From TrEMBL:
Belongs to the glycosyltransferase 1 family. Bacterial/plant glycogen synthase subfamily. Residues 4-236 form the Starch synthase catalytic domain. Pathway: Glycan biosynthesis; starch biosynthesis. This is Granule-bound starch synthase 1, chloroplastic/amyloplastic-like isoform X4. It comes from Rhodamnia argentea.
Length: 500
């Protein structure tokens, strides 16, 4: 949403206050919301960052579960396990988000002052905010509040839908007429067997427009039960628009990246890359050699295909190549990763940590970036890689199809089996075959040309922002007008401005 503000729109983001965020100050504004059978009080914290009002919902249900104090994750105490109060937590978030535009008097922008008011468009993201359109219809519109407001529901990953026990519907404090929108039956035993409620299903049915993060992913979602994860019929009925993501070109900029020693652009990339590769090799303890280096950065889980990659590495590691894998996730996959350097001490490194500086070093210093996802709604890793002149090797799915062109800006491995319980040998073979095809271009004019093609692209949010603007304006909320063309009227300054 950064670029929406840059072309003249007033933009607020609302998220939980999971930590003591720098520059986010207490507005001293509170609101009361009903969560389950209790009335809870939330406080709003705020900062003004890069032209956007950043609002944080403060409540112990969020703040008591921060990483630094407990070692827990945002959604659960450990990967793959949820907090038992997640429905209450995100019910609270949705209600607080509905209050924020009405109760917060924000005046740090030079272009906009005061309350946002009621003529707004809410963008609800994934199952965690799927109650927002339901509360809007049940709690506000009947009272004449938000009469013109609309909701666009954005699906970032269909695999996570918010499926809970059917009896839990009573926790949500919604009228019975919404029950059908949540009603869902599947063949799984978690969290209970049989009939359930499905938050994402309700978000799709109760919102005004459905959006996802790439055109090809939108096609996939309605193509089959497997790709739509049992919501394909619902999405087909509601309709969906795919708008490919952009990337943050300030944080990810090889000319100014604080984590790399040699700054570069398309004019000197071929001189900079060897130096950055040497720095990367030295940092992770690999022999400093002029060989192709492959990087992988991502969560270690089935979606990202890290288990497929682990089985494929022995099939190509015999070539003159090095590979560096960075990521955290499921424990057995982290163990697979850490065993890499034991098996291949001069060719492989596995780093099972969250490490931002190393991610930047790999993106700049590697020659190829591996993205072997079983499914990938959009993906940012391949965008970061191309901006840094690192050629992606990708599975042919979702946004990877929309953003990487075979033989021009990267290499495609074909679509992988979306069955996550096992590793398909055909997918393993596809990785090995494509890696060998990519390695054959190392040191040739072909790879040099591909690097140039990657870096010549505009991967920013400018184009996607205009597409988002057209979609949101089509909702015809009162007072909506197009933004400005040409120069940004609210440039994306790096500074945060704290609420005084």
């Amino acid at each position: 949403m950064l670029l929406l503000q840059a072309i003249g729109h007033r933009v607020m983001t609302v998220c939980p206050r999971y930590d003591q965020y720098k520059d986010a100050w207490d507005t001293e504004v509170v609101a009361e919301v009903k969560v389950g059978d209790r009335i809870e009080t939330v406080r709003f914290f705020h900062c003004y960052k890069r032209g956007v009002d950043r609002v944080f919902v403060d409540h112990p249900m969020f703040l008591e579960k921060v990483w630094g104090k407990t070692g827990s994750k945002i959604y659960g105490p450990q990967a793959g396990k949820d907090y038992t109060d997640n429905q209450l937590r995100f019910s609270l978030l949705c209600q607080a988000a509905l209050e924020a535009p009405r109760v917060l008097n924000l005046n740090l922008s030079k272009y906009f002052k005061g309350h946002y008011g009621e003529d707004v468009v809410f963008i609800a993201n994934d199952w965690h905010t799927a109650l927002l359109p339901c509360y809007l219809k049940s709690m506000y519109k009947p009272r004449g509040i938000y009469k013109n407001a609309k909701v666009a529901f954005c699906i970032h990953n269909i695999a996570y839908q918010g499926r809970f026990a059917y009896a839990d519907f009573s926790l949500l404090n919604l009228p019975n007429q919404f029950r059908a929108s949540f009603d869902f039956i599947d063949g799984y035993d978690k969290p209970v067997k049989g009939r359930k409620i499905n938050w994402m299903k309700a978000g799709i049915l109760e919102s005004d427009r459905i959006v996802t993060v790439s055109p090809y992913y939108a096609e996939e979602l309605v193509s089959s039960i497997e790709k739509g994860v049992e919501l394909d019929n619902i999405i087909r009925m509601a309709g969906i628009t795919g708008i490919v993501n952009g990337m943050d070109v300030q944080e990810w900029n090889p000319l100014s990246d604080k984590y790399i020693d040699v700054k570069y652009d398309a004019t000197n990339v071929m001189r900079a890359k060897p130096l950055l590769k040497e720095a990367l090799q030295a940092h992770v303890g690999l022999p400093i050699r002029d060989v192709p280096v492959i990087g992988f950065i991502g969560r270690l889980e089935e979606q990202k295909g890290s288990d497929i990659l682990a089985q494929a590495i022995p099939l190509f590691i015999g070539a003159d190549v090095q590979i560096i894998v960075l990521g955290t996730g499921k424990k057995h996959m982290e163990k697979q990763l850490e065993e890499l350097e034991i098996k291949y001490p001069n060719k492989a490194r596995g780093v099972a940590k969250f490490n931002v500086p190393l991610a930047h070093m790999i993106t700049a210093g590697a020659d190829f970036m591996m993205v072997p996802s079983r499914f990938e709604p959009c993906g940012l890793i391949q965008l970061h890689a191309m901006r840094y002149g690192t050629v992606p090797i990708v599975a042919s799915t979702g946004g990877l199809v929309d953003t990487v062109l075979e033989g021009y800006t990267g290499f495609h491995m074909g679509a992988f089996n979306v069955e996550c319980e096992t590793v398909d040998p055909a997918d393993v073979a596809a990785i090995a075959k494509t890696v060998k095809r990519a390695l054959a271009t190392y040191g040739t004019p072909v790879l040099k040309e591909m690097i140039g093609n990657c870096m010549a692209q505009d991967l920013s949010w400018k184009g996607p922002a205009k597409n988002w603007e057209r979609l949101l304006l089509s909702l015809e909320v009162a007072g909506s007008e197009p933004g400005v063309d040409g120069e940004e009227i609210a440039p994306q300054a790096k500074e945060n401005v704290a609420t005084p």
